[in-house]
Design brief:
Blueprint (H helix, E strand, L loop, with lengths): L8 E6 L8 E5 L2 E7 L5 E5 L13 E3 L2 E3 L6 E2 L5 E3 L17 E4 L2 E5 L23 E10 L3 H7 L6 H4 L15 E5 L2 E11 L3 H5 L7 E10 L3 E10 L13 E13 L2 E10 L6 H29 L14 H24 L10
Helix pairs in contact: 1-5
The structure holds fe (ii) ion (FE2).
């Protein structure tokens, strides 16, 4: 059984990944062909002709339509067939799925569920994207041979940074600091402060801290697949209050998790910072440290995935820091169950038909 929640917005691509060409993307196990229409907006269609199943991405664009490369069936951006060569009637079943798209802040979002439920007001956003006091920078699209649930769990888990990222995002000072977890509306929030301790590598390289700092990590995970990590540091002598994080060097690391298949996930990451706004060199330093850290996550998550696929004699144990991931798994399971129940209600046909 698939583990994908369909009625949700997912990141399909950075805006820079979509152009006039027909390009195939795999999202929630489905093949999608995307391209920019003549008005610049993005079209997304099921990448499979309903006739002989050739991917439409192997056909060609004709204006704002796509012509199948096998027999020339042609589809418009709503998925309707507009031409079947050799006949004048267009069969009703000659259509492909068309997916709602919302493009914002250089990010292309896609809705893979019931199109009638796609509300663009629910696309993830935050005011810092357009606030002149903040600098937005797009990072990479990191491919991981891992199920998306493990990737998401890693992003509501401040405890791993002490061990996985000792040169960048963590250090020994935080090893034994307990993690707090609560739900905050749509988000699951896991956080902790490490007061009056040596700065982590990231804030030695970026932020210029020498002496001891107060450091925070707030991990917000929005079901199903968006993570915002608010982290930063301020001089320990300032003793800033928990709600005064803008007084320090503050960074939002955003992770948009796209399930490709059950064992392949893309993590598109970017960051928004409140300092060194016009400093491209600082940006390069940050990118380099993030790439180091996320390569460490990739190594961990891919090794975990390999073990998960092997037969096991017992279930993994859980410890105190797993509260965020446990809440996340429960929310995903509840959504999957809801969608399964709704599907049954919409299509109550029996699973088999008796013939005598
Ligand atoms: Fe990590």
């Amino acid at each position: 059984m698939t583990s994908f929640v369909r009625n949700a917005w997912y990141v399909a691509a950075w805006s820079t990944e979509v152009d006039d060409e027909l390009r195939r993307f795999t999202i929630l196990g489905d093949h999608v062909v995307m391209f920019r229409k003549s008005d610049g907006s993005v079209a997304a269609l099921e990448d499979r002709c309903p006739h002989r199943l050739l991917p439409l991405s192997k056909g060609k664009r004709i204006g704002d339509t796509v012509q199948c490369g096998y027999h020339g069936l042609t589809f418009d951006c709503s998925g309707q067939c507009v031409r079947v060569p050799g006949q004048t009637n267009l069969p009703k079943s000659a259509y492909v799925e068309a997916y709602p798209i919302e493009e914002r802040h250089g990010i292309v979002w896609i809705w893979m569920g019931d199109p009638d439920r796609a509300e663009t007001s629910n696309v993830f956003d935050m005011p810092e994207f357009t606030d002149p006091g903040w600098k937005v920078h797009h990072g990479d699209a990191l491919h991981l041979k891992s199920n998306y649930l493990n990737v998401a769990e890693n992003l509501v888990d401040p405890a791993h940074v002490s061990f996985v990222h000792p040169t960048t995002l963590g250090n020994a000072a935080s090893e034994n600091v307990p993690v707090h977890v609560k739900t905050d509306g749509e988000a699951i929030l896991a956080w902790r402060w490490i007061r009056d301790a040596e700065p982590i590598g990231f804030f030695k390289g970026f932020g210029g801290f020498d002496g001891n700092v107060d450091r925070w990590h707030y991990y917000y995970l929005y079901t199903p697949c968006t993570a915002v990590i608010d982290f930063g540091s301020a001089p320990a002598e300032d003793a800033i209050a928990e709600d005064d994080r803008n007084k320090g060097v503050r960074i939002f690391a955003l992770h948009f998790i796209t399930p490709v298949t059950e064992t392949h996930t893309i993590d598109r990451w970017m960051h928004i910072r409140n300092t060194a706004l016009d400093d491209p060199e600082a940006e390069e330093v940050m990118d380099k440290m993030f790439r180091t850290a996320f390569a460490e996550d990739k190594a961990i998550l891919e090794a975990v995935q390999e073990e998960e696929l092997r037969p096991a004699k017992r279930r993994p144990i859980r410890i105190a820091i797993d509260k965020g991931p446990l809440v996340y798994r429960k929310r995903i399971n509840d959504l999957l169950e809801l969608e399964r129940t709704e599907d049954l209600a919409a299509d109550p046909s029996p699973a088999f038909v008796y013939h005598d």
